[in-house]
Design goal:
The structure holds two protein chains of two kinds. Chain A is globular. Chain A has 15 helices and eight strands. Chain A has three domains: 124 residues, 3-Layer(aba) Sandwich (Rossmann fold); 76 residues; 161 residues, Rossmann fold (3-Layer(aba) Sandwich), CATH 3.40.50. Chain A has a four-stranded parallel sheet with strand order 2-1-3-4, sandwiched between helices. A four-stranded parallel sheet of chain A has the order 6-5-7-8, sandwiched between helices. By secondary structure, chain B is α/β, with parallel strands linked by helices. Chain B folds into two domains: 157 residues, 3-Layer(aba) Sandwich (Rossmann fold), CATH 3.40.50; 154 residues, Rossmann fold, CATH 3.40.50.11900. Helix content of chain B is 47%, strand content 13%. The longest helix of chain B is centred in the middle third of the chain and has 23 residues. The chains are: A alpha/beta, B alpha/beta. Chain B: It holds the Pfam family DUF2229. Chain B: GO terms for molecular function: kinase activity. Chain B: Keywords: Kinase, Transferase.
Chain lengths: 367, 333
C-alpha cells in the first residue's frame, strides 16, 4: 500500500510524519505546479471549483510515481467538498486507473466505519499507537503553523533582506529530508528559536491585512499565487484566519466533544449570518468583523470561482465593510487567474489602505 | 383588511407552491405571487446581486423586487434541509441574508428556518413560527397546515400522472399527449419549470411530439432505489432526485434521450451533471446533452441544440439497423 494525499499548504509534512510514525509508505505528490493545474483542469468537470482541479492533478502526478491509495477527508455537505471523493472516483475510473480512495469521515454519524477506515490506512488496529502518532503529528502541524504565521508577520520588518525566506526554505528542506515526527519536531524547535531572533525594524510603517475566505485558497499558496509573500513585499503584515492545525483540532477534538473554539467567531458573525451554511462562510464573516475590531487596516477575501458558501458571504461584504469601517477586497481565483491583473489589484488595494491610514493620521494631528 | 403575503415565483416555488399558497390562504391571508419571469425581473435581479451568483438566485432577487411594494410580508424561508441527513444548496441557507443585504429596502421578510436535517420533530414548531405572522391561534395554524399538506400531496400525485407544474399552474388539466417517444429532462425544478429562463424548453420538446418526463413524474421509491446504488449518499435532496432519475432513465427502454438543463455556475450541477454524464457515456447508449443557461443565453443557440438532439433521436428510430456498408447510402433514392 502506497498512500498519497492532496496538497494543502505545507500539511504534507505533518501527514508524512504521521505515516512515517505508523510505518506506512507514502508518496508525497510533487509540489503544485502549472502542470498539476493543467492536468486537473483537463480531466475535471468544467465548472467544479478550483481545489478539486488541483487535487486531481496531485493524484495523477502521484499515481505516476506509484501511489495506489488516496486518502482524503470528507464531509456531508452542504458544500461540494463532501462529494469530491465521488467525482474523483468517477474521473479516475474513466481514466482507467485502479486506485483505492479512502475517505476519512463518519457517514451518517457512523463512528465504527470511521475507525475501520482509519485502521485500514494506518495498517494497524492498535488505537493507542494511532492516537500517539496522531498526537505527535499534530504537534508538528501546530509548530509548523506557528512558524508560517511568524513568517507572514515578521517578513515586512526584516532588516536583512530574504533572511526569513532563506530560513523558511531551509526548514522545509530539512523537514522534507527527515523521517518521523521526532526528527521534524527538533528541526521546527530550532527554526522557531532562530526566527524569534531575526533582527527587525519595528519603526517601519507597515499595514495589517487579514486573509479570510475559503479554506483551501487561503492556505494553499499555489492557488492564491502566494498572496502572503506578495503582500509582505509591499510592506504589509498578513494574518491568515484559517490554518490546517486549527481545522484539524476543531474537527477531531472540539466538535466531537460537542464544543467549539469558534463560538467567538460565530458570535461576531451573528448580526449578519446566524446559522452554518457550509464551507467557511460564517467564519469569513465573523473573522472580518473581528479583524476590524482588532484594528487591522483591511481584509482580503479569497475564494474559488463558483464557491457556493463564499458567494453568500461575498454578498454580505458591502454591508460589513460599511458598518465596521474596514475595506474589503474579494478575490476570485480559478485556473484562468493571471498574475499581472492579480498583482495590480493587490497594489491598488494596498495603496488605498495606505492613503486611508495617512488621512486618519493627519486628521488626528489637525484636531 | 387581510394581511398580504408575497411569494416569489422562483426557486422552490414550483416544488411547494400549493403547500405555501394554501397554507397562507387557509389562515386568511391574501397571497400575491410575483409575475412570471420576464426581462425586467431578470435585469433587476442581475443588477442587485453579486456577479458570481447563479442565474436562479439572480432571478429570485428580481421576483422579490417585483413583490416589494405590493405586500406586507415576503415569504423567503431559510431552506436548510427538508430530509434527514440531506441538504439543499448552501445558497438557499443564506438566501434571507443575501436578500436582506443586497436589497436594502426590502423589509418584513418571513425568514423562518426550515431545517429537518436531524429529524422532523421541529416540524410543528416551524409551522407555528411561520403561521404566527398571520394569526396567534395555534390550532388554526395546525389545521391550515394539515389542509395545505393535503393539497400539496394532491399536487404531487397529479405530477406522478405526467402533468408538469406548468400544466397545473395554467390549469391545463387535459391529458397531456402521451407520445411513445419519451425524453427525460433533468435539472433543478427552478431551471426546468421557469418557462422564461429555460426558454420554454418543455413546450419546445412537446412541439416535436416528444413526451417530457422530469424527476417529479417518477415514483419516490424508484428514485430512492436507484440513488441508493451510489457509493456515497448524495446529500443534496434535489441532487439525489436528479441522480436517481438519471440512473432510472439509463435503464428504462422507453426513454429515448436525456437532456440536462443546468445553469451556469451551479455548484450542485457541476458535480451531478458530471457524474450523470460519465455514467451515461460509460454504460448506456442513450443520447445525452447538457444545456447550460445563464442571463446571456441566446434562444437561437438553445433551439439549434434541441433540434439537433431531436434529429438524433428520430434518425435512430428510422435507421436503427441500417448501418451503412461501404459506399452505400443510408437513404436510397
Amino acid at each position: 500500500m502506497k498512500i498519497t494525499f492532496p496538497h494543502i499548504g505545507n500539511s504534507y509534512i505533518p501527514i508524512k510524519a504521521l505515516f512515517d510514525d505508523l510505518g506506512v509508505e507514502t508518496i508525497v505528490p510533487p509540489k503544485c505546479s502549472k502542470k498539476t493545474l493543467e492536468l486537473g483542469t483537463k480531466y475535471a468537470p468544467e465548472l467544479i471549483c478550483l481545489p478539486l482541479k488541483i487535487n486531481l492533478g496531485n493524484y495523477l502526478e502521484s499515481i505516476e510515481k506509484g501511489a495506489d491509495t488516496i486518502v482524503i477527508t470528507g464531509g456531508c455537505g452542504p458544500c461540494r467538498f463532501g462529494y469530491y471523493s465521488e467525482v474523483q472516483k468517477e474521473i479516475l475510473k474513466d481514466l482507467g486507473y485502479d486506485v483505492d480512495i479512502v475517505v476519512l469521515e463518519a457517514p451518517e454519524g457512523d463512528r465504527g466505519e470511521f475507525l475501520r477506515r482509519v485502521s485500514k490506512i494506518a495498517n494497524t488496529r492498535n488505537i493507542i499507537k494511532i492516537g500517539r502518532s496522531l498526537k505527535n503529528s499534530i504537534t508538528v502541524l501546530k509548530k509548523l503553523n506557528r512558524f508560517e504565521e511568524m513568517v507572514l508577520k515578521k517578513r515586512p520588518y526584516e532588516i536583512n533582506e530574504n533572511q526569513i525566506d532563506n530560513l523558511y526554505d531551509r526548514l522545509i528542506k530539512n523537514l522534507e529530508a527527515s523521517r518521523g515526527s521526532k526528527e521534524m519536531t527538533e528541526h521546527l524547535n530550532k527554526a522557531l528559536k532562530i526566527i524569534e531572533e531575526v533582527p527587525l525594524d519595528k519603526n517601519r510603517d507597515v499595514l495589517k491585512i487579514g486573509l479570510v475566505g475559503e479554506i483551501y485558497t487561503v492556505i494553499e499558496d499555489f492557488s492564491n499565487l502566494d498572496i502572503g509573500k506578495k503582500l509582505n513585499k509591499m510592506g504589509v503584515e498578513v494574518h491568515k484566519s484559517l490554518s490546517t492545525g486549527e481545522w484539524i483540532s476543531e474537527m477531531l477534538i472540539y466538535r466531537s466533544l460537542g464544543l467549539s473554539k469558534e463560538v467567538k467567531i460565530w458570535e461576531a458573525a451573528k448580526p449578519y449570518i446566524k446559522t452554518c451554511i457550509g464551507g467557511h462562510a460564517r467564519e469569513t464573516v465573523g473573522n472580518t468583523v473581528l479583524y476590524s475590531k482588532k484594528g487591522y487596516d483591511g481584509v482580503i477575501q479569497l475564494m474559488p470561482f463558483t464557491c457556493m458558501p463564499e458567494i453568500v458571504s461575498m454578498s454580505l461584504m458591502p454591508s460589513i465593510q460599511a458598518e465596521n469601517d474596514i475595506p474589503i477586497l474579494s478575490l476570485i481565483i480559478d485556473e484562468m487567474t493571471g498574475e499581472g491583473g492579480y498583482l495590480t489589484r493587490l497594489e491598488a488595494f494596498v495603496d488605498l489602505l495606505r492613503n486611508r491610514k495617512e488621512k486618519g493620521q493627519y486628521a488626528e494631528k489637525l484636531s | 383588511m387581510p394581511i398580504k403575503v408575497g411569494i416569489p415565483r422562483a426557486l422552490l416555488f414550483y416544488e411547494y407552491f400549493r403547500l405555501w399558497i394554501s397554507f397562507f390562504e387557509n389562515l386568511g391571508a391574501e397571497v400575491v405571487v410575483s409575475e412570471k419571469t420576464n426581462k425586467e425581473i431578470i435585469d433587476n435581479g442581475v443588477k442587485s446581486t453579486v456577479d458570481e451568483a447563479c442565474l436562479p438566485v439572480k432571478i429570485f432577487h428580481g421576483h422579490v423586487l417585483n413583490l416589494k411594494d405590493k405586500v406586507d410580508y415576503i415569504f423567503i424561508p431559510r431552506l436548510t434541509s427538508v430530509n434527514k441527513y440531506e441538504y439543499i444548496c448552501p445558497k438557499f441557507c443564506g438566501l434571507p441574508e443575501m436578500i436582506k443585504y443586497s436589497l436594502k429596502d426590502v423589509q418584513n421578510i418571513i425568514d423562518t428556518n426550515i431545517d429537518f436535517r436531524k429529524s422532523k420533530k421541529n416540524l410543528n414548531k416551524t409551522i407555528i413560527e411561520i403561521g404566527r405572522y398571520i394569526t396567534r391561534d395555534v390550532n388554526e395554524i395546525k389545521k391550515a397546515f394539515k389542509n395545505a399538506l393535503e393539497q400539496h400531496n394532491e399536487y404531487h400525485s397529479l405530477m406522478k400522472k405526467g402533468l408538469l407544474p406548468i400544466d397545473i399552474l395554467e390549469n391545463n388539466y387535459i391529458e397531456q399527449l402521451n407520445e411513445e417517444v419519451k425524453v427525460v429532462l433533468l435539472g433543478h425544478p427552478y431551471n426546468i419549470y421557469d418557462s422564461y429562463s429555460s426558454m420554454n424548453i418543455i413546450k419546445k420538446l412537446r412541439g416535436y411530439k416528444l413526451s417530457v418526463i422530469t424527476c417529479d413524474a417518477l415514483n419516490r421509491n424508484v428514485i430512492n432505489q436507484n440513488a441508493e446504488t451510489l457509493d456515497k449518499k448524495m446529500f443534496w435532496s434535489f441532487g439525489r432526485k436528479i441522480l436517481g432519475t438519471a440512473l432510472y432513465a439509463m435503464e428504462d427502454n422507453e426513454v429515448c434521450g436525456i437532456i440536462y438543463l443546468s445553469s451556469f455556475g451551479c455548484g450542485l450541477d457541476s458535480v451531478i451533471a458530471d457524474i450523470v454524464e460519465r455514467r451515461i457515456r460509460r454504460s448506456s447508449n442513450k443520447p445525452f446533452t447538457l444545456l447550460t443557461i445563464d442571463e446571456h443565453t441566446g434562444e437561437a443557440g438553445i433551439d439549434t441544440r434541441i433540434e439537433a438532439f431531436v434529429d438524433m433521436i428520430r434518425w435512430r428510430e428510422k435507421n436503427e439497423n441500417n448501418l451503412s456498408t461501404h459506399r452505400k447510402f443510408i437513404y436510397p433514392n
